[in-house]
Amino acid sequence: MKPILDIRFRMLFIPVFTACLNVFACRSFFQSVCVLGYCVLPLTIALIVCQLILIAEQSTLFFIIRCVIVLVAFGWSTFGMFC
Prior knowledge:
Layout: H1 2-26, H2 29-56, H3 60-82
């Protein structure tokens, strides 16, 4: 279980760190925290929902549902980064 969590942490840390560097250059601290929270929250919700779906059952339908959830969360967080 540890390698999976390590990979997920790295996949989340690198974009957040990059956004943090970009955001702190032109905004205040509290604006930066809000932007990072708005960008990370959808991905965190998608991760929790996908893990709950994996616990329930694994099938092709649930795989497609998980893909849609991740794509929606990615779109939400990307849109939130540019607002």
